[in-house]
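Structural prep section.
Before we set up the soaks we want a predicted structure of the protein with guanosine-5'-diphosphate-alpha-D-mannose in place, mainly to decide which crystallisation condition to try first. Input record follows.
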Amino acid sequence: MKKQRVAFITGVTGQDGAYLSEFLLKKGYIVHGLKRRSSLFNTDRIDHLYQDPHVDNQNFILHYGDMTDSTNLIRLIKEIQPDEIYNLAAMSHVAVSFETPEYTANADGLGTLRILDAVRLLGLEKKTRIYQASTSELFGKVQEVPQSETTPFYPRSPYAVAKMYAYWITVNYREAYNMFACNGILFNHESPIRGETFVTRKITRATARIALGLQDKVYLGNLDAKRDWGHAKDYVRMMWMILQANEPEDWVIATGTTTTVRDFVRMSFKEVGIELEFKGEGINEVGIIKNIDQEKYEQATGNSSVRVPQQSEGVSRTHQPTIGKEILAVDPRYFRPTEVDLLIGNPTKAKTKLGWECKYNLADLIKEMMQSDLKLMRKDQYLKEGGYTTLNYFE
Ligand code: NAP
Ligand code: GDD
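Run finished without errors. Recording the tokens verbatim:
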């Protein structure tokens, strides 16, 4: 019988960690994941994969640890003896990295060094292949459009600078110690389990809540920013493909299409039959409901469009979406001290050399995210109507 391959995923509780775990388990891997200790459970995204540690033959095993703790990483890699390491753990929020630059450098930059050096120290250079979660944020103030593996970097945040260190230390360990260590320079990828404070999920959650009458308005930052958004499922498949290649290399993974934040908002509201128009400029720009396709609205929300909730339901009358209502405004608090205005990737190398293709386009992605958030928020609606309080997750 063929020996089961063993993978170690840091950041297993994150968006990509969850999808990658599912993907590798389906392929027959034994998956070990690094999770942080937190005061509340932080395993929502992987709970469906959880296996009772008291049962024999577990193939999904979680370990406590942290990217800032070398001794912990060395011990775990020694015990696990992984064939493949996927280093996904990071403080991954660009805006937050301006608030926590030192910690970001430690976890995202030095954390990568800790993994690489643990493998070297343990003499696993020949056995263990390493995937480093690199990012299109490295291109920052872009020097070329679209961006490919040869585009020069110009990072624009503490996050991107930390990831730039991680990128080069990965290249350096590959060249110095002949390790199979690769960077996947991934452009933005999203999904229904995307963190709630990234712009796509913030938008789909708010759209669902506004459509259901649970929220009045959403406040966003730079509506002109352009991103190359793909689906996380397509991207984790590519992480695995990168480690199965004949040679260790660095790869750009992107859809090759870019869209403004404003258009992402438009497309999300369209999913619930609401047409928006944008008026004003800069910090005075607002989004107003121009039209409501009643049939589509009712189909998407399950709400009768004329239904006016009672005060006893904990939902105020003013929350109902109506034509002419302002449901979006700009709040400068979401601006970044230095911004990445435009990202669009050229994934030709991944397509031609590894045969990677995206299965999802942006419209598919938004549809899936909207359906998922509508379902989630409908649950909130039921709870409110039943007199229960709901969690107040806002940024
Ligand atoms: P995510 O949802 O924010 O997940 C990050 C993961 O890292 C979480 O499991 C988090 O744990 C863990 N983590 C954070 N700090 C840690 C530390 N000090 N020690 C151990 N674990 C730590 O991010 P993602 O979207 O899945 O992205 C995965 C990786 O790809 C990240 O490195 C990100 O920077 C990179 N990337 C993402 C994209 C994208 O568009 N998604 C694009 C390019 C690159 P908790 O759950 O406990 O917070
Ligand atoms: N988060 C957020 N919140 N972003 C906003 C908002 C808002 O209210 N309003 C506008 N934006 C703009 C940001 O200024 C940025 O230009 C764009 O929307 C995307 O922001 P995020 O969704 O936070 O993602 P990101 O592009 O900064 O970073 C993500 O992608 C990188 C790959 O390019 C993260 O996943 C990084 O970890 C990843 O490396």
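Observations: Residues 92, 94-95, 135-137, 187-188, 197-199, 202, 220-222, 225, 227, 261, 334, 336, 339-340, 343 surround guanosine-5'-diphosphate-alpha-D-mannose (ligand 2) (CB under 6 Å).
Flagged for discussion at group meeting.
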